[in-house]
Backbone:
């Protein structure tokens, strides 16, 4: 059954997002932005996490509209982007901003379709935000645009090669990042909150490109649920998401860690975004 937020998305915007010719994960990201289901600061607070809801760049309360349109860094990105028009600065609702995106056109010559660049910029604003938050890596506005253009061109080339199959087509597979990640999840909150936090951590890890993940939790219940086939649970929907998400990793393991041994996650539980912690080894 569709949630209230999902029902509020206008049909035209719904069709626009799901009919986009882009990567499924980008469509999913835009949809989650439209229904305000992304783990931004304000949303975490709304779900009961005692965290700092401020943007890591400017300190203003972090909504998805802030990430994609309002933040000073984001404004710099949109200003530098070679577009025929720029998004309204005073968009409050993410739905309004997303509805405006189809009217944004990139100026030639970019080598990509005129309407695709704004989508890739949105995606890279989100990825950049996650890198800043989870990997403590900062990018400039020009780097965000450069990355968006690169991904847009790569996507277009990939589609062209798919449409023209060749006998001796060379394929290049990028190696997964040589990074192992440990996600410590603390069970200070009830199981649903912890499961929700873990799901968002896995979404973000996929966005950032991590290929391997080790989940440590002091909630034996959650670990058992993920590793079982149990379907009769109040949080089945989230646990089912988790089971699907783990398939995105080439290597993932989950471990029960008693509270005393999970000191790091326990400490994190008292700081901003306490439920999520990546350690890049
Ligand atoms: Zn900001």
Residues:
């Amino acid at each position: 059954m569709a949630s209230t937020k999902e029902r509020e998305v206008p049909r035209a915007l719904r069709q626009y997002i799901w009919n986009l010719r882009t990567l499924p994960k980008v469509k999913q990201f835009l949809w989650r932005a439209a229904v305000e289901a992304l783990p931004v600061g304000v949303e975490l607070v709304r779900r009961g996490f005692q965290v700092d809801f401020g943007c890591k760049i400017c300190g203003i309360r972090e909504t998805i509209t802030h990430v994609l349109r309002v933040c000073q860094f984001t404004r710099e990105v949109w200003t530098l982007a070679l577009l025929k028009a720029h998004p309204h600065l005073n968009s409050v609702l993410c739905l309004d901003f997303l509805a405006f995106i189809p009217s944004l056109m990139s100026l030639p010559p970019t080598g990509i379709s005129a309407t695709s660049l704004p989508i890739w910029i949105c995606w890279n604003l989100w990825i950049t935000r996650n890198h800043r938050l989870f990997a403590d890596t900062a990018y400039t506005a020009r780097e965000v645009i450069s990355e968006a253009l690169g991904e847009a061109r790569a996507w277009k080339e990939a589609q062209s090669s798919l449409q023209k199959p060749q006998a001796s087509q060379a394929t290049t597979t990028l190696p997964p990042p040589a990074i192992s990640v440990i996600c410590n999840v603390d069970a200070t909150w009830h199981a649903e909150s912890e499961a929700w936090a873990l799901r968002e951590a896995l979404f973000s890890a996929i966005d950032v490109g991590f290929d391997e993940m080790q989940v440590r939790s002091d909630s034996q219940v959650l670990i058992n649920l993920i590793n079982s086939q149990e379907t009769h649970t109040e949080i089945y929907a989230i646990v089912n998401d988790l089971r699907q998400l783990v398939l995105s990793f080439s290597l993932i393991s989950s471990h029960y860690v008693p509270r005393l041994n999970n000191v790091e996650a326990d400490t994190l539980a008292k700081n901003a975004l306490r439920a999520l912690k990546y350690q890049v080894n």
